[in-house]
Write a structure and sequence with these properties.
This protein is mainly alpha-helical. It has 21 helices and no strands. Helix 10 runs antiparallel to helix 17. The longest helix is centred in the C-terminal third of the chain and has 44 residues. The two termini are 27 Å apart.
């Protein structure tokens, strides 16, 4: 029996885990949420969510993967065989996310190549929608494949394949470059941002606290946003942290690892806010408008507002290259970590070589992503992302808490975690896993479902909404059929 692969060092593991956690959402979602929900006051619910939900769940996943020394499916099956279905659902969900996440990486790749001369500087909105995406009028017009996006997607998947084809051996080498590089680029962009005219106006708007937002009417949205951001930005419920930690030695310090990953991720998000709002403050001053008029999130920030601001700067091409290189390096670590989570389980369950498994997963991921390279790709991406992130991951988080907190036993897991860790976690961790996190996520889920059934998300037609629900329910049904067939086959 061959020995399990190991990370060459704790540093390699930490880099890989931070690389997975720190992604595009740190740059284009956190700053927007902070400005929208109370400015500097948003730090209060955000940090509470980090220590009440984020880090405890991170400890749970790192602890389970490291203790069982297997991927997601086998780690959960070790608690109870039926929980292997949850593991498969996690992996199918990761696959769906990776299929469209890499498309965003492909957009960044296109912008990197067109950064010389800032080719979008005339009208960034028209350039993104018409030139890059060649977006149709609505989701009803699927159209054809956009060649540039298709080719960029293929190149992106080739890069990802050669990042994971040797498992932790190749990943540990890649992350030594792709994790510090975006941080260095972020610092360079930060220095540039704070020295721009109007930067302080944007940063002031980012930081000025509005405590009424935390406790006034509609304040529940603030707390939901904070918990959601922490939950989704730490790569929780995607099988990644279980897979990565399974390559640690069983006596690796879990608590220290979890706090290092969680706190680093949040610091990078907060710093990214200074970069974003310093730059948007400059853009607002150049256009003689309020900062609130140029604030947006998601693709609109990364591919419309930021390119516009960059085009107005001196040395626009240079800083554009830095910005999109940062986006690509942020995306690639998150992307290949999801692939590695899937590869780990398949490798654990078969005798296939890692490079063959990686080739199959990357090929299927590329094929699944082709639908997002069509003229209606942005609409389809928006729909699938909305349902998977806001429903699938929340339910998975609840099920993980039930599996470890109630079936395996939170106290039993806590004893193992404390045994291998220099500083100990108290009974608060067990209480959080058993009660606080599942209850918080259940409330978020209930509010989300209420919104979903009140009206079609984004005003999309019924058939398009069914695609979103299909991305949630079809993997769920298939996932729970797999272990049942396996058990039936074994009994026969």
């Amino acid at each position: 029996m061959s020995l399990r692969d190991r990370w060459p060092s704790r540093t390699a593991f930490i880099y890989a885990a931070i690389g997975s956690a720190v992604g595009l959402g740190n740059v284009w979602r956190y700053p927007y949420l902070a400005e929208k929900f109370g400015g500097g006051a948003f730090l209060i619910p955000y940090l509470i969510a980090l220590f009440v939900a984020g880090i405890p769940l991170l400890i749970l996943e790192l602890g389970l993967g490291q203790k069982i020394q297997k991927g997601t499916v086998d780690s959960l099956a070790a608690i109870k065989k039926k929980f292997s279905g949850v593991g498969w659902w996690i992996l199918f969900t990761s696959f769906i996310i990776i299929s469209y996440y890499v498309v965003v990486m492909a957009w960044s790749l296109i912008y990197l190549f067109t950064s010389y001369g800032a080719q979008w500087s005339g009208d960034t909105q028209t350039y993104f929608f018409n030139n890059v995406l060649q977006l149709s009028e609505s989701v009803d017009s699927i159209g054809g494949i956009v060649p540039a996006v298709f080719i960029a997607l293929l190149i992106s998947w080739i890069i990802i394949y050669f990042s994971v084809w040797k498992g932790v051996k190749s990943v540990s080498k890649i992350v030594m470059i792709t994790v510090p590089l975006p941080i260095i680029l972020l610092i360079v962009l930060l220095i540039r941002a704070v020295t721009l005219d109007g930067a302080m106006t944007g940063i002031t708007q980012y930081l000025t606290p509005n405590f009424n937002a935390l406790f006034g009417p509609g304040s529940s949205a603030v707390w939901i946003a904070a918990f959601s951001q922490i939950f989704f930005s730490l790569s929780i419920a995607l099988g990644i942290m279980m897979a990565y930690s399974s390559y640690n030695r069983k006596d690796s310090d879990i608590n220290k690892n979890a706090f290092t990953i969680g706190i680093t991720n949040s610091i990078i998000s907060i710093v990214a806010g200074f970069v974003v709002f310093g730059t948007l403050g400059f853009m607002a001053e150049q256009q003689q408008v309020a900062v609130s008029e140029v604030v947006t999130s998601g693709p609109g920030l990364a591919f419309i507002m930021f390119p516009k601001a960059l085009s107005l700067m001196p040395f626009a091409s240079f800083f554009s290259i830095l910005f999109f290189l940062m986006l690509i390096t942020l995306a690639i670590d998150s992307a290949f970590s999801m692939v590695e989570a899937i590869d780990t389980t398949i490798t654990d369950k078969t005798k296939m070589k890692k490079k063959h498994v990686a080739l199959i997963v990357c090929t299927l991921g590329f094929l699944a992503g082709i639908m997002y390279t069509t003229n209606a790709g942005l609409y389809l991406l928006d729909i699938v992302d909305h349902f998977v992130i806001n429903i699938s991951l929340i339910v998975i988080g609840i099920l993980e808490c039930i599996a470890v907190g109630w079936i395996f036993g939170a106290e039993k897991m806590r004893k193992y975690i404390n045994k291998v860790s220099d500083f100990k976690i108290g009974e608060w961790w067990s209480t959080t896993i058993k009660y606080i996190i599942p209850l918080s996520l259940a409330i978020i889920l209930a509010l989300q479902l209420k919104t979903e059934f009140a009206a079609n998300y984004g005003g999309y037609p019924d058939w398009a909404i069914l695609i979103g629900w299909g991305a949630v329910l079809i993997p769920l049904v298939i996932a729970f059929l797999i272990p049942q067939k396996a058990v039936k086959g074994a009994s026969e």
